[in-house]
Amino acid sequence: MNRPGPVGIALVLAFAVVAVIEFRTVLGMVGIDIAIGPYFAGAAILLVGGAAALFAVPEELTPESV
Amino acid sequence: MEVFANEYPDEAWVVRAALGSAFVALAIGGLMGLIQTLHRTGFYDSLISNADYYTVLTLHGVAMVLLFTIFFLVGFFQWAITDSLGRKSEDIRITKLWYGMMVLGSAMSAVTILGGFVDSGSLSGVEADVLYTFYAPLEAHPLYYMGLAVFIIGTWIAGFDWFRSWWAWKKENPDERMPLRTFMVLTTMLMWYLASLGVAISVVFFLIPWSLGIFDSVNSLLTRTLFWFFGHPVVYFWLMPVYMMWYVIMPKLAGGRLFSDPLARIVFVLFLVLSVPTGIHHQYVDPGIAEGFKFLAMTNTMFLLLPSLLTAFTVVASIEHGARQRGGEGYFGWLTALPWGKPAFTGMTLAGLMFAAAGFSGMINAGMSINYLVHNTLWVVGHFHMTVGTAVALSIMAATYWFLPKITGREIFSRRLGLAQVLLWFIGMVLMGNAMHRAGLAGVPRRTADPTYDQVIYDGAYGAIGELRFQIALGGVLLSLSLVLFFAHLVLSSFDIGERAAATPDSIPAPLSGPEQAPKVLDNIRLWTSIAVVLILITYILPLASIVTDGGGWLGDSYGVIVAEYVLPAVSSTIDIFVGVVA
Ligand code: HEM
Ligand SMILES: [Cu+2]
How far is the centre of ligand 2, averaged over its atoms, from the C-alpha of B561 (Å)? Predict the structure, then answer.
């Protein structure tokens, strides 16, 4: 596998944000309640990471950037 | 070959104007959406009063699903027809006429909706807080219905304009197959003619006379049924241009070719045939319609899954082909060879993914019995924000990044900005859409300014209801931010701040399996339209007859003064004279 480019990282992090937040509900369904604070903090960090990755996307598209 | 904007400047003007109208509606609708999410979740409810909530909601619904989607559609279809037939409008004045009528109609309706915010002065009686579903017994100012009628007639003329182009083209190319994009436009418009007939009858014969005071009442069940006759197929009117983008633009962006032209034609034929005779599935809970008719509508609805599944297959096969052309390998490894750096591609893919997820909640809605669990709850709102609100809206925004250079002759401003925008929409909608589904399961109603009235606490939700409320609000804010990025992008692109060289013209590559593989009968749109009409008659004649005979006649309880004192006596004396003459 190739090393993921910045776009790939941004995409994966976008999915991760969603997964982290939804996962809390899934845990809640099986009776494990986790405090809300760390979860949203985690999601926020991922979101910032995704935004940072986007800044590394080159404006001109090259084969390496995808 | 030239860029579309230079080759067909007049047509490109209309396309740009239509897109401009669409985006104005999107901006207004987005602002209302933000107000709603914050208001009904209780995070910021002092901007409007509860009494104005329906004005906001009407504006949101009408701006988003009637104006934004349909204005974009007419612009996109104008491009599709002109570009695929390679000919100018037969008469550009007609093209400008239908666009002008649509703008006029929108303005008429918008004034009445906005009047709802004004409680005194000359606009005080002008209101249209009837939501985008506008059936009785909610009543609007006559101008609201008249505006809708003018708008719809505008779209009818647009369809006629495109048929005219095709007829002229066929005269010159008698032996050629209809180009795919033209085929898609024409089948969509035929579907639209059939579908919009229901709402046109409701508006012209019942709602307008009623709101003018000519009738004192109308048969609410009848206007509701006629609305849904149109209200389900209208979703395909939003979706079919998006399917065209997925079939035509995505394979190209992925570096490949459409997998199968015949399959794409079959999908559009299926939509033409099956879209209308399903509308009663919005009335599963309606007591005025017998269960058997609902069952028939459910059966047709389940068949309608087929064209969407075919689409999923064809589109994925096409982009996989593209990825392999670009050197992608393995069962899933080819996914990394897709052009994720292009906002148009990434946005449309995310939109398609969300559409697949929403298809599952759609199956719940479509099931006659399980529908009772979710009817009129936020679940439904979650469902259609993932379908029309994302599969359609996000595809439109994403496709705009590809489309804009064609019609303006200038590149878009920034890939990064475009990517940030589509990703933000995706994250925002997952939050808002999911939480709405779950809140709906807990019983939170839709179309309600303050769902916590009477201290209802909605037990039994997975995760506290407070958390769901927070996710809805957060999702709504992220979506609004995404819209801000989108509009910023449009503005920056139009001022050409990026100073990109003008877009190079490009064409749509030929499909892997071309139209010559498709049986000729597929292009026989008369046949498919006739089948559609027969199916509509089968599913609607009996329910409509029973609504009129058992459910209060054409006009409900009373005819009203004007009809009772003038129309009926006039009719009966005419009959007397006639009988006298004959005898
Ligand atoms: C900024 C993004 C958006 C936000 C925050 C938002 C928010 C909302 C909310 C909270 C409601 C439910 C109100 C209620 O039932 O009380 C709603 C209703 C609705 N939304 Fe959105 N929305 C957004 C974008 C869209 C888009 C893009 C579309 C379609 C293209 C759309 C179409 C609708 C429709 C048709 C309704 C139903 C209106 C009715 O019940 O009459 N929305 N929206
Ligand atoms: Cu429907």
Answer: 37
Distance, in Å, from the CA atom of B75 to the CA atom of B14, rounded to the nearest integer, reads 7
Could you state, in order of their start, the residue ranges of all structural domains in chain B? Answer: 173-582
ipTM tops 0.95:
no
CB pairs < 8 Å spanning A and B:
64
pLDDT tens column, A6-54? 888 888 888 888 888 778 777 777 777 777 778 778 888 888 888 888 8
- Please state, in angstroms and rounded to a whole number, the distance separating the CA atoms of residues B182 and B163: 9
Q: Which residue has the tokens 């009543």?
A: B139
Which of A11, A57, A66 has its CB closest to that of B339? Answer: A66
B173-582 belongs to which CATH class?
A: mainly alpha
CA distance B506 to B511: 15
User: Above 80 in pLDDT, residue B465?
Assistant: no
Hey, where are the domains in chain A?
Answer: 6-55
pLDDT one-digit tens code per residue, B383-423 = 999 999 999 999 999 999 999 888 888 888 788 899 999 99
Cα of B325 vs centre of ligand 1, distance in Å, is 40
Give me the residues paired with residue B445 across strands: B377
Whether the Cβ atoms of residue B408 and residue B13 lie closer than 8 Å to each other = no
Q: Do A18 and B427 touch (CB under 8 A)?
A: yes
- Evaluate if pTM is beyond 0.90: yes
In a mutagenesis test of the B interface, which of A7, A12, A32, A47 is the best target, namely the one with the most B β-carbons within 10 Å? A7
Interface test with A, best of B334, B348, B427 (most A CBs within 10 A): B427
